[in-house]
Specification:
By secondary structure, this protein is an all-alpha fold. The chain folds into 2 domains: 117 residues, no CATH class; 157 residues. The longest helix is centred in the N-terminal third of the chain and has 28 residues. It is globular, with a radius of gyration of 21 Å. The relative contact order is 0.09.
Length: 303
């Protein structure tokens, strides 16, 4: 396909007399995909030069430029959808814009990390590790926005639930897959980066909220619901393993000689749907520190 369109041409359709609220959401998505495609193309071109001294600076510039474009996209399209007369359509559109922006940021940083060819966080440079941290923060914000309820509650104790997740009964497989992988990634990245256990517990709480919300709308999407449930269970097991090894005010250690069985299982959990159907980035990341004793090999054990 040859793309013969620009973001400004996309904007020209916003003022069309027959445009609807759905059209505006689709047009914003087209422009977002154009920004992402351009950034990914630059990252792929720079991947072959990662050994050059200036490669990190070039990659950082590419990511920072794309981040600015995404921030402008969010600001400008938020202004456009804010003119919508229907309060429900407006709040839903604004929520979707924030969700899409954080998804784009998360995948942007993970694509940049993948271009280095290094999967083990324990061996990454500070530059690469910073990108993983940024991806985790974007995934955390993505989770937060998914759970928001833009409707106004009449009672302070009333739980209105997530307006975004309530629409999943009629949505596409890809949207379900994005939801499931975003939860898996935010939990996995928090563990791999050795975040404080209290922080991981808060993320697990929100992950459980997503699970509870989606229990009502799982018709036809059981596979992704099960992936989400398994991700949470494996993360809980990995976290319990750390809890037994740490003092009362424990945090995950910055380094460790080896991870336990539960964390190894969680790190290695990569659902086939995410690899062969959607090719989501970041699922191959792991944290496997090399202890000094691993530098010596018992030759006899090899035969």
């Amino acid at each position: 396909m040859t793309l013969n369109i620009s973001p400004r041409k996309v904007r020209s359709l916003v003022t069309h007399t027959e445009r609807t609220a759905v059209d505006v959401r689709l047009l914003s998505q087209i422009e977002l995909n154009m920004i992402r495609t351009e950034a990914y193309s630059k990252i792929v071109k720079q991947a072959g030069d990662m050994l050059l001294p200036q490669s990190e600076a070039q990659l950082r510039t590419t990511v920072e430029d794309a981040s600015i474009e995404l921030s402008l996209w969010l600001e400008e399209w938020s202004a456009i959808v804010s003119t919508e007369q229907d309060p429900y359509q407006k709040t839903m559109a604004l929520q979707n814009l924030h969700i899409q922006r954080e998804w784009a940021m998360m995948t942007l940083y993970l694509k940049a990390v993948a271009s280095s060819g290094i999967e083990n966080i324990a061996f990454m440079t500070e530059f690469q590790r910073d990108f993983v941290c940024q991806a985790k923060e974007a995934a955390s914000r993505h989770l937060h926005h998914m759970l928001q309820s833009p409707t106004i509650s009449t009672s302070p104790t009333e739980n209105r639930g997530s307006t975004y997740l309530s629409t999943f009964r009629w949505t596409l497989d890809y949207v379900w897959a994005k939801c499931a992988v975003s939860v898996l990634l935010v939990l996995k990245l928090a563990i791999l980066l050795r975040d404080p256990v209290a922080s991981v517990m808060l993320l697990l709480r929100d992950a459980h909220r997503v699970l509870e919300e989606l229990k009502r709308v799982t018709v036809g999407h059981i596979a992704y619901f099960q992936i989400l449930q398994t991700s949470i269970e494996k993360c809980e097991a990995a976290l319990k393993e750390y809890a037994t090894q740490q003092p009362a005010d424990f945090t995950l250690p910055a380094t460790s000689e080896s991870s336990g069985g539960a964390e190894d299982e969680f790190q290695g959990y990569v659902p086939s749907e995410f690899v062969f159907e959607w090719d989501f980035p970041g699922l191959n990341l792991k944290h496997m520190p090399l202890g000094w004793q691993d530098l010596f090999i018992n030759i006899d054990s090899l035969f």
